[in-house]
Amino acid sequence: MENEASSGTIPPGAEALVELHGEREAVERRLVLAQQRRQFGTDADDVAQAGHDEREALLELDRVLTRIRAAEYRRQPGARRW
């Protein structure tokens, strides 16, 4: 029997969750690059900007993860709707 992962199909209602995880991956990449620029940068201005970019990426990552948790909760049977 073929599962969802091997068939490449997405169950109904999961498109938003897949999209959120794609957004999470992009933010995580931005975060890692900013951390590396801050850690290994040689120009003081670039290091300062990297620190700012890192803080922004962390805030965005927190927002995306919160949205993912909410989307996963909504998919549970009997989940409350506010």
From TrEMBL:
Top-level taxon of the source organism: Bacteria
Name of this protein: Uncharacterized protein
Source species of the chain: Methylobacterium adhaesivum
